[in-house]
Amino acid sequence: MNLFFSIFLLFSNFPELIIGKEVVDPGIVFIFEGAIKDEIHPKSLHLDENETNVHIEARVNWDIENIPKGAVPGGFIPYLNITAKITNQHNGLRSFIDLTPHINLIDNFHYARNIYLPGSDEDLYSIEFSITPPQSAEIALHKDWKLIYGNKILKGYNFFLRMLILKKFQDPKDCKIINIYNFCNIDQLSPPFFL
User: Fold this and answer.
1) Residue 195 covered by a domain
2) Is residue 194 part of a domain?
3) Distance between CA atoms of residues 19 and 183, nearest Å
4) How many domains does the structure of the chain reveal?
5) Residue 125 belongs to what H/E stretch?
6) Measuring CA to CA, which residue among 93, 98, 133, 103 is closest to residue 113?
7) pLDDT tens-digit map of 119-160
8) Cα–Cα–Cα angle for 101, 23, 33, rounded to 5 degrees
9) What does the DSSP assignment read for 16-33?
């Protein structure tokens, strides 16, 4: 399954900007955001705010409707493994990061990471988010879930955000993101467009 669409956005006075959104079975919403850099604790495990270009986030929650019985509408989906590959489209340099669970007073629980861009903040970047479900040792599935939804919470997915300008994210008033968004099931993955 591939979806292609273009979004042209101008970031105004908001501390976070949605750079991609997708709903997948069984009713899970992925919202990818770019945010201004922030101080994250414990500091020893996170990139210092002064060394950060942008704070990348993935909000992963149950949808409001068409969700499994017992799911809390809008509730956080834990235990996912989310990685991001940021590729500079000008010089080909890449950064690889793991998004870890965070909590704040804006989004509450989410996955995120402070990042240092592999090049100038004036360059074009692509971001590939890879989502894999928790392994069987990380989460136990009851019989009722298994009968209806199978052996996993969700399939693995890759989300591609191409031609992304992460420009001057330190000052939200100056930030522009131009995004061509591509979604694909990881089982059908063949990304010929990456450097």
Assistant:
1) no
2) no
3) 12
4) 1
5) strand 124-132
6) 98
7) 987 788 889 999 999 998 999 999 999 999 999 999 999 998
8) 45
9) EEEEEEEEETTTEEEEEE
